Structure formats: C-alpha cells, structure tokens
Amino acid sequence: MPASLLAPGSPALRSRDDLLARMPWPADAPGLAQARLLADYVIGRRAGALDVSGRTTEGTFAAPAQGPETIIVVDDAHGLQARVLTELASVLTYNDRLDEARIVAAEAPLAEAVADLPTPMPAASGPETDDGDPSTDASRPEVWAVVNAPKATNALAETITALHPHVDTLIVIGRSEAMSRAVNTELARAYGRVDVSPGVGKNRLIIGSRPLASPSLTRFPRRGVIDVPATGPLTVSAHGACFSGTKADDGSTLLLASLAEVLAAPSAATTLARPASILDLGSGNGWLLTAAMRVTGAERGVGVDISRAAVASAKETAEANSVTVDIVLADAAADPVDAAADAANAAADAANGTAADPASVAGTFDLVLLNPPFHHGTAIETDTAAGLMRTAATHLAPGGRVLTVFNSHLRYRDRLESIIGPSEQLARNAKFTVIESRRPAP
C-alpha cells in the first residue's frame, strides 16, 4: 500500500511533510498514522490534488479546491488527529469517554472541546436537494467532521444523526479490516455520495458528502424491556455508544440475582442487611442500579460512568421506571489528579445541563456494585478494575459490602480481599463469578 494519499514529490505532500515535521511525536506514536492520513486528505482536497474519494487528480481534470473552515473531531483517543488538524482549520472535539477527552485536551490545547454533539455547532453549507442537485452556497465556509469508527454500529448511527444538520462532509476513519459495509450504509442514510479512500498502511477513510435534504436517520435513544424474576419488567433506554444497549449483560444479571438471594436468605449469617444507599461504579445503561434500588428499597442511589452516552442512558432508564437516583459523569478508576480534572470537567458539563453535579458522589455507601470492564477497545486490561476496586473501598461505609461480578478466568477474589476486605463467593456459572467483599463494622 502507498505511504500517502498524495502523489510522491507533489507540493501537497511537501506541505504535509512540513506540517508533520512541526509535531513533537516519534514516528511510531500511537494514532499518528491516522493523523497523517487526515492531513493528507485535508491538504490534498484544499490544494485540488485529491478528489472527494481521496484519489490523486494527477493526469485527470483538476478537482476544484475544497477545504473546511471548521472540523469536528469525534472520539480521537490519542489527541493527535485534533492536534494536526488545528494547523489546518478551527477544530471542535467531542469524546464520549472522559479519559480520552482528558488526553485530547492535553495534546491539542488549541482545539475547543464540546460536551454534546448537537450544540453548539456551526451550520452546514446546505443540504442536497431532493432532486439530487447540491444546494450548497459556495460562499459559506464548509464544515467537516472526522469520526473515529466505533465498534458498535449504533454508536456511529447516533453520531451521524447528531452531525448531519451541521456537516457538509463526514469522514469515518479506522483500521481497514474494521471498516465494514455497515459504515457505508449508515453514511448513505444521510449523504448523497459515499466514497471509500485508498488504504494507507492499515487505515482508510469512508467519506460521506452532499448531505441529503430528507435523510433517513436513526432515532435515539433506543428503548427496550428487561424482565428478570427479581424485579419484573423494567424499561431500559440506551444511546448508541452505551455498552450492552438495551440488554442486560449476563454478568449484571447474575449479580442482581445474587443480591436478591442474599437479601432473602433465611440465615442471619448470610442475610445482607437492606442497604440505605447504593453506589454503582460503571452504571452503563442504568438497568442494574435501577433494579437494585427496586430490590433493596434503598433511599439513595448513585451511578457513575466514564461515558457520556452511558450517563444519559442511565438517567433515562431510572426516570422511565420512576426511580430517583443521581447519575454522575466521572472516571471512577482514575488516579486522584486525573479524577480532580474530570470532576472540574463534569462540573462544567453540569452547568450546561449535560451531567449531574459531581458532588453527589461524595460520602459513603452501604452497598457498592461493580461490574468492571476488562477491555479498552480491543485490548485486554485489568487496571480499570483495580481502580474501581480502590474507589469502591474509599466510598464503602463501615459494615458495608461490595458485590463484584467478573469473568471467572480473571480471578479477582485475592485482589478484592487485599483492597476492600474479607471476600467470599456468592455465585458462579460457566462464565461469571460474583464475590461479596465486606468492610467490618467498627
């Protein structure tokens, strides 16, 4: 595969090389290959050296020079895309995850972070008319978006739905092997033209242009029903990037069943005292916290998640079931310095009506629920689980208990013993284990 979309020796390639030479990163920095590919495309389009598909115009009729005044960058995990693009346009950044937003802010200080995709956004130049002729006003500056291809099609669909009214050209970037036809299908719902760029290294672009006046956009949030014996049917809401969508993952289902069983146990030695307060670290779509509130009759419930989509989903799930809880946007696994920065960001979001007040997670709780992730993207990692366990220990009241569910091969019991306190197995099936950890009463 070629090393660039741009023709060797071309003025556009020299401009790209000059730009990258000003960047501070080593050649093998994570995310640099995709940032380089985006620089190719923007510089090439602006110079007329590339057509809309990212193919060189050498030897063909010259493509009209086009380029954005504003670029919206979505879910840039490393911040390098945003940093490079700030050399070429005004950049707005949106990250669903707080930890990634923190990285982008550090790498691209000239970019402006936004807490929600629909607002505030610049208006697109104009949609394609229903007869297929573009109605774009050439005198108005173009707005482009770069969306890092998510694992879930629903996440991409919701992002396209949010961006379509504001964006003339929407570029999905990702590893070639991960760019399925579903990306083309979702872009075609909103844009009259969809192009696939040549591959560069292991990456490529799929480009939507000519926004449709009558798009066929997917509506969010999605609604579903989860029905388990402990609670009966509960309505569940899920935005596109929310883990597990409107379903209950098997681990949470086992944890809830274990909680209901120990609450009803006839033996005083095994019965869990009904908690007055519950903290759910990693609340996802909010079903587990909502269900636990129903099962226990707790007076106070707080859910925490690092994902904006999860926070919005959990709030809506609780409201749909008339359960009163606080849902907080925060990185519950972060070290204290990063957690303080995230709390400040969450406070800013709260002022804009997009997150709960981070102060609502203060204090201790009688019961903490943990269903820690062990993947970040495609990588397996257990540091997040350890961070969540430390946070659980910090917020656990004397005499309180932590219920943790995890994939059995991870063998977290010893770690729970060392971080929280005496631990015992409550349940185990072919895939998951539930451990109860206690903080002895004084």
From TrEMBL:
Origin organism of this chain? Brevibacterium ammoniilyticum
Kindly name one Pfam family recorded for this protein: MTS
Q: Which InterPro entries does this UniProt record tie to the protein?
A: DNA_methylase_N6_adenine_CS, RsmC/RlmG, SAM-dependent_MTases_sf, Small_mtfrase_dom
PROSITE patterns per the UniProt record, alphabetical: N6_MTASE
- Entry annotated with the keyword Cytoplasm: yes
What is the protein name stated in its UniProt record?
Methyltransferase
Q: Where is this region: Disordered?
A: 116-139
One GO BP annotation is: methylation
Instruction: Name the Gene Ontology molecular function terms of this record.
Output: methyltransferase activity
Q: State the organism's lineage.
A: Bacteria, Bacillati, Actinomycetota, Actinomycetes, Micrococcales
**Sequence ranges assigned to domain Methyltransferase small in this UniProt record:** 234-342, 361-435
Which keywords belong to this entry? Cytoplasm, Methyltransferase, rRNA processing, Transferase
Q: What PANTHER family does the annotation carry?
A: RIBOSOMAL RNA SMALL SUBUNIT METHYLTRANSFERASE C
Does the keyword Translocase feature in the UniProt annotation?
no
Instruction: Please indicate which superkingdom the organism of origin belongs to.
Output: Bacteria
